[in-house]
Amino acid sequence: MELVKESIKNLKEYKTNKIDFKIKLDANEGKNILLQDIYKEGIKFNEDFNLNFYPDNDAYLLKQEIKKYLNVDTSNIIAGNGSSEMIELVIKTFVDKGEIILSPIPTFSMYSVFSQIYSAQFIGIQSNEDFKVDIDKLIEKSNELNPKVIFICNPNNPTGNLINKNDIKKLLENTNGLVVVDEAYMEFAEGSMVDEISNYENLIVLRTLSKALGLAGIRLGYMTANQKIIDVINKVKSPYNLNAISQYIGVKALKNKDKIFEYIEEVKNEREFLYKELNEMKIKAYKSYANFIFFKWDINNLYEKLIDYGILIRKFSDELEGYYRVSVGNKNENERFIKILKEIIENEK
Ligand code: PMP
């Protein structure tokens, strides 16, 4: 296509899976605990809100609930169409053509995709052999390259590892760029930077309702940062970016937020089960602080073999060829996954 802008000529479409599956462990979605009551009650459209009006541009009621959830002021929040929109908004607001965006790699692909779309230069800093992030190397690179933005995915997708708070603070204190900490999976770990937003002018924290809160279908994510950052990003945000139904369900769900803690504990226990089982099978699995496990396996076509059994996981390509990521499912799903893996190994012998 001749007319397309240069920066996206080589961009690949974000393809999702339409394969028929019985057990879906590919996208780290959570259980629908907070939706159960809403399903029962139903939504009374004319009474709850009128869809002929635009939604609240400021998502006031939703921000009130996020305030209670995170203990941050509403003036420090922007909500939108998934944390993916938040990633895009940060780049759109702060990064000019050709400027540098830095991130440890491997990590969530959308940082580099949005960098490319906005003609920024994405530079990935390779993590250690065990996928741990070397913060001193990152600081050194930041001093050398002077990035506008540094993305830190914590816990990291897809590796599951966690950077401790002191390391992130060290980075914040030793860079001129904005540090965006993507905490999509932080409910499954400890060490959120949310309570540091008033201490650092260059800190943005991203969160989502798609994972631990089990609401991926409503596409609701948000960021929190000091007010100067929020004010400038608000100038760039599209009007009415968060639809009325998602705002409504987000509010209802967050009012019941206490119900997720038991689920989070269950995920942590199941994560240990998977980690232990995989390692006992001599599969190299990485310790995870999220709701998934990253592992390496050299059996050919593992992904396809699992699909034959109706199990969908995530596979990687290029430099991560041979690596896989499996979401932590419920007890039955995890047991079935392990059982099938054992069968596949047996059949390979
Ligand atoms: N950040 C990370 C690290 C993710 O893994 C994901 C989803 N895979 C997102 C952001 C985007 O989440 P959402 O747009 O659903 O909020």
Automatic annotation (TrEMBL):
Family matches, as InterPro entries: Aminotrans_II_pyridoxalP_BS, Aminotransferase_I/II_large, HisP_aminotrans, PyrdxlP-dep_Trfase, PyrdxlP-dep_Trfase_major, PyrdxlP-dep_Trfase_small
Catalytic activity: L-histidinol phosphate + 2-oxoglutarate = 3-(imidazol-4-yl)-2-oxopropyl phosphate + L-glutamate
Sections of the chain in a coiled coil: none
Keywords (A to Z) from UniProt: Amino-acid biosynthesis, Aminotransferase, Histidine biosynthesis, Pyridoxal phosphate, Transferase
Keyword Amino-acid biosynthesis: yes
Pathway where it operates: Amino-acid biosynthesis; L-histidine biosynthesis; L-histidine from 5-phospho-alpha-D-ribose 1-diphosphate: step 7/9
GO molecular function, one term: histidinol-phosphate transaminase activity
E.C. numbers: 2.6.1.9
Keyword Transferase carried by entry: yes
Record-annotated Aminotransferase class I/classII large domain positions: 22-339
Domain of life: Bacteria
Positions of modified residues (N6-(pyridoxal phosphate)lysine): K211
Cofactor(s) of this protein: pyridoxal 5'-phosphate
NCBIfam families from the UniProt entry: hisC
Similarity comment: Belongs to the class-II pyridoxal-phosphate-dependent aminotransferase family. Histidinol-phosphate aminotransferase subfamily.
Subunit record text: Homodimer.
Protein name: Histidinol-phosphate aminotransferase
Gene: hisC
